[in-house]
Amino acid sequence: HDFLVPPHTAPVPPEKSPPAVTPVCPLIPVPRHFDRREGVLPLAGTFLVVSEAGSLGDLALRYLGQAHPLSTSARDLSEVTPLRLLLQECPLEAYRLTVGPKEVTFSASDAAGFFYGAVSLVQLLASGTHLPCCVIEDAPRYRHRGFMLDCARHFHSVEEIRKLLDAMASYKLNRFHWHLTDDEAWRLEIGAYPALTDIGAWRGHDEVLEPQFGSGPGRYGGYYSRQAVRDIVAHAAALNITVIPEIDIPGHSRAAIRSLPELLAETEDRSSYCSVQYYRDNVLNPGLPGTYTFLDTVLAEVCALFPGPWVHMGADEVPEGVWLGSPACKALMVQAGYRTARQLQGHLLSYAQQRLARSGRTLIGWEEAAEGCKLEQSAIICAWTEPASTARVRALGYPVIACPAPHTYHDLAWSSAVTEPGLHWAGTADLETCYRFEPDESAGDLLGVQAQLWSELLGSADRLEYMLFPRLLASAETAWSPASRKDWPDFYARVKLHQPLLEQRRIAFRPLQPCAVS
Ligand code: TNX
């Protein structure tokens, strides 16, 4: 797989760090307004909660309660710090947090706003026994602040995913895009098709899924049971995170095809193609009725398991040459008046879109889904190829999530040093490259920004965390903070403050490099 092989590189200059500054505000992402006031609030052992928020404060208090003891009554007022939750007109997800010399107050108008107030307060609590007096007024830049994890190429445990969800929430990310299927494996238990996980969830074990391994490294992998999915969805919901499952079709489907050959094979198909990752048998066939039965069955179970409003259907990287030698596809083309493979892909995706719409779900797709031009404009597109593609897809009329590979693919190597693990196909991405990404807003409203972690090379949790942190913090700041508040030297200094917090979370992050002045 040369896709996975790093290019030969010359010696790499030491990484640059920006000039040292002392940040005014320790928070990541940096809030819209932060006014440092005179004085400090000495923290008592317990917060005495006085709330007029009712159930809108539940998420916030549950989150806060894990960091600091809470109570709703006190015998001795000197032993508690009053914490007030006030309802106040303000935009969705926005909050105002006031740390006064005697008490903490936060106000918001929805559960998410109170939750993010609590998230900021928990970050401030990390500064020690005294909180700095301050007033914070904050609201997100984007509605969609995503993180995509590829659990297909390598299986990541439920425990690891919970840990990542916790980290996401503490940096105010709110959408977990869960890449569950790919060529290498199928990770989601589907009751109607046990073979999908009996066969498709295991790599390296035999000649069926991975003949290239020969006797191979031995069987490895795993899948998410329906109960595991429910646990993850519930854990995410408690952190104001919506889970977006991805079933990647029609390309990247080799594991499904090898697991269910009776549904998806057409022996007379003379098409010949090769995917970016060198697979020659990884694309579903839109000309076969079995493909639609498969989709109906899988999507019914997906909609039953995932309560969120979105389902991602992939649509990336369908190789050239596919379908054109398939009699079934030729028949469909004649019948529908199609002339290109793109139209066939559009046919399949719009079928999925209609199927999802009947269950009240909106389809999301990678950039290539926009190119068939068959989809209803409610479809949401993840623009991934390069920063300029965001505006291109917007111009086609679709709402867009900016996911440009050179800045938001955290599987890229940190640098071109031969010792750095990671992919190189879209360049390398140090913290500054990730941080300096600014989405192009000229083409209109953008739903948001998303970080991606593909996992071809992530065989362990340590490796995963090394690639992701602290780059995820850079993506989170771009997704939440207004462009005018972003400041690279200031961010760098705040990441320094956050390293001990990442350590406390037992995250195997890549430490900031102690190095030369720029
Ligand atoms: C491209 S981005 C892919 C993935 C790979 C990734 C590696 C996209 C929609 N497809 O299949 O894992 O590059 O960086």
From TrEMBL:
EC number from the UniProt entry: 3.2.1.52
Domain Glycoside hydrolase family 20 catalytic: 142-482
Reaction(s) this enzyme catalyzes, per UniProt: Hydrolysis of terminal non-reducing N-acetyl-D-hexosamine residues in N-acetyl-beta-D-hexosaminides
Keyword Metal-binding: no
Keyword Membrane attributed: no
Keywords for the protein's UniProt record, in alphabetical order: Glycosidase, Hydrolase
Domain of life: Bacteria
Residues of the full protein shown: 112 to 629 of 647
Sequence similarity: Belongs to the glycosyl hydrolase 20 family.
Protein name: beta-N-acetylhexosaminidase
Biological source species: Microbulbifer spongiae
Domain Beta-hexosaminidase bacterial type N-terminal stretches: 25-139
Signal sequence bounds: none
